[in-house]
C-alpha cells in the first residue's frame, strides 16, 4: 500500500478492513466450528486463503495490482480469519489426551510465537533485496500462498479433529447456537471472570503498549527505530519463553495459583506505568521481556483451563469468545491511546497501568478465582 499510494492512511484503512471483519465474524466462526469440526473449518479456510494469496501474488507479479484489489484481499482475508482463528484454537483438545493438553497448547502457541520471528524477517529480507521493484513483495505473497497449501495438505491427512464431539447443536440454527454459547459462558462464574479479565487487560494494556512503545522509542530513546525493534522483539521472545515454561514447569496449585495470577496482573499494570518514566532502552527491554514471559505463561494456563472445563461441543464458541475478548477491543483501545498520547505520553502509561492494577484487585474479589485455582489442583503437574 505504501508503494502504491505513499499514504499511511491507506495502510491504516487496509489494516482496519482486515481487523474488523475478523472480530465481527469471530462468534459466527465459533458456532460453525462446533457445527462442522475444527479440522473441516480450518481446511476450508486454508483453501480460500490459498486462493486469495495466490491471486494477490499473481497481480503483483504481473504489475496489475491496484488499491481496490488490496482492500478486497484484506476484507476477504479478515472475514476468513474470523472462522479460522476459533477453529485453530479449539482443535488441540480433539487431538491430544487431556493429560497432554497443556503441553500441546505450549507447542502450538510456542510455534506461533517462533514463526512471528521468522515470517516477518524473511519477508523483510525479500522486500529489501528487491527494493527497487515489487518482486520481493510478490515473492512474499507467493511463499505465504505456499504455506496455506502445506497447511491444507497436513489437515487433509490428519487423523483426529474431524468430527464434532456432540451433534446436539445441529438442531439449532447458527444464531441460536451462538446465543447458547454466550449464555453458557456468562452463567459460568469462572469463564465469565476469565473473559472479563482478558477483555479488560487487552483494552487497558495491549492498546497503550502497541501505540505507546513506538512513540516512546521515537521520542525518548536514543536508538530510535532500533530501540523499537528491540522492545517488540523482547516482548515476543518473552512470550515464547513463558509459553515453553508453561509446558515444562509444574503449575501453581490452589491458593498459590490465585496469588500468582493476581500478582502477575498487578505487575503488568505497575510495569506499564514505569514505561512513562524509564528512558533507558535496556531497562525497557528487560521489562518487555519479563512482561512477555508472564503473558505467555498465564495464557497457556488460561487456555488449558478453558479447554479442559468446556464441553467439547462448545469449544469453538468458547474459543471464539476468548479471541474476541483478546482482540475485539484492541482497535478501539489503540485509537483512544493515540488521542491520549497527543496530550501526554506519561499520562497514557500511568493511567493505563493504574487501570490494570484495578482489574487485578477486582479479580482478587471474584468467586470464580477460587474455582479456577481449585481446577488446577487435580490437573497433571507436567505435560
Characterization of this structure:
The chain has helices spanning 2-5, 8-24, 26-35, 38-61, 67-90, 101-129, 135-157, 174-187, 189-220, 225-248, 255-274, 281-309, 315-327, 330-343, 345-364, 367-374. It has 383 residues and is mainly alpha-helical. The chain is built from 16 helices and no strands. The chain is 80% helix and 0% strand. The radius of gyration is 21 Å and the shape is globular. Helix 6 (101-129) packs antiparallel against helix 7 (135-157) and helix 9 runs antiparallel to helix 10 (225-248). The longest helix has 32 residues, at 189-220. The chain has 2 domains: 2-161, MFS general substrate transporter like domains (Growth Hormone, Chain: A); 178-374, MFS general substrate transporter like domains (Growth Hormone, Chain: A, Up-down Bundle).
Report Rg: 21 Å
What is the CATH homologous superfamily assignment of the largest domain? MFS general substrate transporter like domains
CATH architecture of the largest domain: Up-down Bundle
| Structural shape | globular
Measured distance between first and last alpha carbons: 44 Å
Number of domains: 2
How much helical structure, as a percent, in the residues? Answer: over 70%
Q: What is the CATH topology of the largest domain? A: Growth Hormone, Chain: A
Average pLDDT figure: 81
Strand content: under 5%
Largest sheet: none
CATH class category name of the largest domain: Mainly Alpha
Overall structural class, as computed from helix and strand content, comes to mainly alpha
Number of strands: 0
Task: Give unreliable regions as ranges.
Answer: 377-383
Helix count? 16
The SSE order reads HHHHHHHHHHHHHHHH
Amino acid at each position: 500500500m505504501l508503494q502504491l499510494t505513499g499514504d499511511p492512511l491507506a495502510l491504516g484503512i487496509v489494516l482496519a478492513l482486515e481487523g474488523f471483519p475478523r472480530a465481527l465474524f469471530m462468534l459466527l466462526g465459533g458456532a460453525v466450528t462446533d457445527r462442522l469440526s475444527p479440522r473441516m473449518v480450518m481446511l476450508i479456510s486454508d483453501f480460500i486463503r490459498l486462493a486469495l494469496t495466490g491471486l494477490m501474488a499473481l497481480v503483483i507479479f504481473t504489475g496489475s495490482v491496484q488499491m481496490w484489489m488490496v482492500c478486497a484481499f484484506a476484507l476477504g482475508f479478515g472475514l476468513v480469519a474470523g472462522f479460522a482463528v476459533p477453529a485453530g484454537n479449539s482443535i488441540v483438545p480433539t487431538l491430544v489426551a487431556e493429560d497432554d493438553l497443556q503441553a500441546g497448547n505450549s507447542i502450538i502457541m510456542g510455534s506461533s510465537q517462533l514463526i512471528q520471528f521468522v515470517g516477518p524477517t524473511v519477508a523483510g529480507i525479500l522486500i529489501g533485496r528487491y527494493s527497487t521493484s515489487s518482486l520481493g513483495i510478490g515473492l512474499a505473497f507467493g511463499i505465504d500462498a505456499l504455506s496455506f497449501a502445506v497447511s491444507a495438505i497436513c489437515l487433509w491427512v490428519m487423523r483426529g479433529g474431524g468430527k464434532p464431539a456432540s451433534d446436539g447443536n445441529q438442531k439449532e440454527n447458527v444464531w441460536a447456537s451462538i446465543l447458547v454459547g454466550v449464555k453458557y459462558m456468562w452463567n459460568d462464574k469462572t469463564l465469565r471472570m476469565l473473559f472479563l479479565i482478558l477483555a479488560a487487560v487487552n483494552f487497558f494494556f495491549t492498546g497503550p503498549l502497541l501505540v505507546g512503545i513506538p512513540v516512546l522509542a521515537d521520542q525518548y530513546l536514543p536508538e530510535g527505530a532500533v530501540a523499537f525493534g528491540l522492545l517488540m522483539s523482547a516482548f515476543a521472545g518473552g512470550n515464547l519463553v513463558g509459553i515453553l515454561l508453561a509446558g515444562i514447569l509444574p503449575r501453581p496449585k490452589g491458593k498459590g495459583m490465585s496469588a500468582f495470577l493476581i500478582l502477575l496482573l498487578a505487575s503488568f499494570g505497575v510495569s506499564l506505568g514505569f514505561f512513562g518514566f524509564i528512558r533507558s532502552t535496556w531497562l525497557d527491554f528487560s521489562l518487555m521481556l519479563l512482561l512477555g514471559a508472564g503473558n505467555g505463561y498465564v495464557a497457556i494456563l488460561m487456555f488449558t483451563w478453558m479447554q479442559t472445563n468446556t464441553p467439547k461441543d462448545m469449544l469453538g464458541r468458547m474459543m471464539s469468545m476468548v479471541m474476541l475478548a483478546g482482540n475485539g477491543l484492541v482497535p478501539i483501545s489503540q485509537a483512544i491511546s493515540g488521542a491520549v498520547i497527543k496530550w501526554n505520553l506519561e499520562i497514557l502509561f500511568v493511567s493505563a497501568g493504574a487501570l490494570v492494577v484495578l482489574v487485578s484487585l477486582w479479580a482478587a474479589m471474584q468467586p470464580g478465582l477460587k474455582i479456577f485455582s481449585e481446577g488446577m489442583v487435580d490437573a497433571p503437574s507436567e505435560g
